[in-house]
Amino acid sequence: MPVWMQTAALLTLSNVFMTFAWYGHLKSLNTKPWIIAALVSWGIALFEYLLMVPANRIGYTELSVGQLKIMQEVITLAVFVPFSVLYLQQPLKLDYLWAGLCMLGAVYFIFRS
Question: Is Phosphoprotein found in the keyword set (predicted)?
Answer without folding.
Answer: no
